[in-house]
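Let us work through a complete example step by step.
Step 1: write down the sequence.
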Amino acid sequence: MKVMVKTCLMVALMTLSLPVLGTDCTNPDITLNSQAEVDNFQADYGGVGGCDTVTGTLWAEGNDIYNLDGLAGLVNVEGTLWVFQNPVLTNLSGLANLTNVGGNLYIQINDALTNLDGLANLTDVSGDLAIQNNAALTNLEGLAQLTNFNGVLFINFSPALTNLNGLDNLTSVAYLQISSNPALTNLDGLANLTSVGALTIESNATLTNLDAFANLTSVGGDLFIYDNAALASCYGLATVLDEIDDAGPGPGSPPIPDVGGLVTLENNLPGCNSVAEALIPPVVTPVPASGPFALVLLTCLMLLSGITGVRRQA
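Step 2: predict the structure and record it as tokens.
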């Protein structure tokens, strides 16, 4: 009997220590300007049993904020979430339980932030998503579970970002801007996009092709591709730039029915400075054979041509 009572008491204490799920925080809009305020989030705004939902805007901005662990119980932000100008913040692991942002999500000017892995459970962003001016950010793989998003997507001014892997679940966005990411070599993470409201790819110095847009069939507004110093092929946009109406009906009119606004391709490498250039398939250069296979191939060719190098005896 004593053992049973002790066990029940332990379970009760553990239950009391956990936040009550589905509970709104006491303030609708919350601003956290220091690590201490982040650490005291539940004490200051959680009420009696803790909270998991901010009903308004949550803003985290502070010179000494190095983690967001105090937000570990947070599941839902019904308004906009700002992670803004935190120079020593290295990760977002404190947001590991966050599944929904009902407004916009802004991750901007966090100089030490290297990844978004803390957002691994985020599935819904109802507003816009801006990832900008994060000097050390190398990848977006933490967004791999983001499936319900149709807003504006900004990926700008991230000098260490090399790819967009993690955005594979996106199929449609209201506007896509990818600008001034000098280490970005490809857009393969966007390979499942089929429609965008408007598209701008600008000033990405090492981007070489737009093959990731092969499944794109509709651009509702303007399409701007310019000032990409290494971009030599825009053939990935052939479906939206040709004269065939793939969107059925397309947002535009002939001769480019799949684009509803202006089309500008300029200041890229030859092959991507006009619609005509973009519609030319890239030339595939065969790789010369080498090693033992090359010897076999050469022998076969010689036999077929009647030159064997071996004289028959009379």
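Step 3: interpret the result. The first strand starts at residue 30 and ends at 32.
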